[in-house]
Specification:
By secondary structure, the chain is an alpha/beta fold. Helix content is 34%, strand content 25%. The protein folds into two domains: 190 residues, Flavin prenyltransferase-like (Rossmann fold); 209 residues, Rossmann fold (3-Layer(aba) Sandwich). The chain is built from 14 helices and 22 strands. The longest helix is centred in the middle third of the chain and has 15 residues. It binds cytidine-5'-triphosphate (CTP). The site of cytidine-5'-triphosphate has 15 residues, from helix 12 and strand 19.
């Protein structure tokens, strides 16, 4: 069993860090490192003033990619920095430090440098961490600008009080990098519907070994489970994906992926973390049986047994249902070859689920190894919701929205 990545609260979040010309720019290095340490992807845009205080090389080294400071990257080759692309790429722009000048430019929509252009074309929320001298900070112009920005929804990370570069003592020092990073985390927690919720998803098939090279398995591709993992993570959930042998990359914002091969391993992985989860979705096509005996070496033709005895595997979902607390919610899948409503209802009750997603192989385009699915969701209160044939990614988003409104108190 492999733990691919530990839990990072900002996993996959894209943050554009804008740095402007203040002595506090030296703290931006710690902030960039802190955001990366918490799992964020960081891109840095520096104003010319900022490069006087901290070098682009320092920042580029910390974030592992070049920083942007000019509209043109290589004037002679005609390469320009696409500020619109940067503005769209980010989930959040943090300007830290934000000088009085940049705050004023933001209020008036000025576009005199790359950072200002990024801010003007951004579709994502913006946070600023002002840093300036005491009198500049308390000046009515700055205070008015901050008020206007706040009214427009900009998150102002208040400066701290203490000795300032000028020798004065007062309010104006940029907030500490750890505090700004906490604020960034809080931002994602409050803005997304599944923020703070821990979601466990099982996906893919299991492989039950017969000998060193053969196994008992099924045709599950893992696509539906991965689409759900991605949709939950996009909505702010901390997703743990326990996954059988599949050939799929981990969706971007998923916090932890546990790769397993057999049902017994999947059960062990699920049991190790289910108690700390808020929500579980069992999407895996778990093999109900495994060969009673396996061999570490390859069976040759002459050694092949005539019959293979099977042993029952644990019902992972049933185990989750049995230990489910009042605060937890649990969803199962039922893949049926007939119309399936009655057996799905029976599974819902037998496994103590809050909802079950039924797909039937009678429907073209539904089920294993295809990119589309057509499902009916039944829940414990008797509600039935049908979803037309559609891409698994699209369907996953709709299921995640449905469960947020119908299953989470
Ligand atoms: N499941 C599980 N562990 C198993 C078998 C199934 O966690 N050993 C989960 C699947 O991930 C799915 C649900 O149970 O969410 C339904 O699986 P299915 O194979 O349809 O149900 P079974 O309980 O095996 O019932 P049956 O074979 O009688 O249809």
């Amino acid at each position: 069993m492999e733990l691919a990545s530990p839990s990072f609260p900002l996993s996959g979040r894209r943050i554009v860090l804008g740095i402007t010309g203040s002595i506090a720019a030296y703290k931006s290095a710690t902030l960039a490192r802190e955001l990366k340490r918490r799992g964020a992807q960081v891109r840095v845009v520096m104003t010319a003033g900022a490069t006087e205080f901290i070098t682009p090389l320092t920042m580029a080294t910390l974030i592992d990619r070049p920083v942007h400071s000019d509209f043109t990257e290589d004037e002679h080759a005609g390469v320009w920095t696409n500020h619109v692309e940067l503005g769209i790429w980010g989930d959040l722009i943090v300007v830290a430090p934000a000088t009085a000048n940049t705050l004023a430019a933001m209020v008036h929509g000025q576009c005199e440098n790359l950072l200002q252009a990024v801010l003007l074309s951004a579709r994502c929320p913006v946070a600023v961490a002002p840093a300036m001298d005491l009198d500049m900070f308390t000046h009515a112009s700055t205070q008015d600008n901050l008020r206007v920005l706040e009214e427009r929804g900009v998150d102002i990370v208040d400066p701290g009080t203490g000795p300032l570069a000028s020798g004065l003592v007062g309010k104006g020092r940029m907030a500490e990098p750890e505090d700004i990073a906490d604020r960034v985390e809080a931002h994602f927690q409050k803005t997304l519907p599944w923020s703070g919720k821990q979601v466990l998803i099982t996906a893919g098939p299991t492989h039950e070994p017969l000998d060193a090279v053969r196994f008992l398995g099924n045709r599950s591709s893992g696509k539906m489970g991965f689409a759900l993992a991605s949709a939950f993570a996009d909505q702010g959930a901390l997703v743990t994906l326990v996954v059988g042998p599949v050939n799929l990359p981990t969706p971007e914002r998923v916090h932890r992926r546990i790769d397993i091969s057999t049902a017994v391993d999947m059960n062990e992985a699920v049991q190790s973390c289910w108690a700390s989860m808020d929500f579980g979705v069992a999407c895996a096509a778990v093999s109900d049986f495994r060969p009673a005996q396996t061999s570490d070496i390859k069976w040759h033709r002459a050694d092949m047994p005539e019959t293979i005895a099977l042993k029952e595997n644990p019902d992972i979902l049933r185990g989750m249902g049995q230990s489910k607390t009042d605060a937890q919610r649990l969803v199962g899948f039922a893949l049926e070859t007939d119309e399936g409503l009655d057996s799905a209802k029976a599974k819902l009750a037998r496994k103590n689920l809050d909802a079950i997603v039924l797909n039937t192989l009678q429907d073209d385009g539904a089920g294993f190894a295809v990119d589309t699915n057509k499902v009916t969701v039944l829940d414990a209160s008797g509600r039935t919701v049908e979803f037309d044939l559609q891409a698994k990614d699209e369907l996953a988003q709709k299921l995640v929205d449905l469960w947020r409104t119908t299953l989470i108190p």
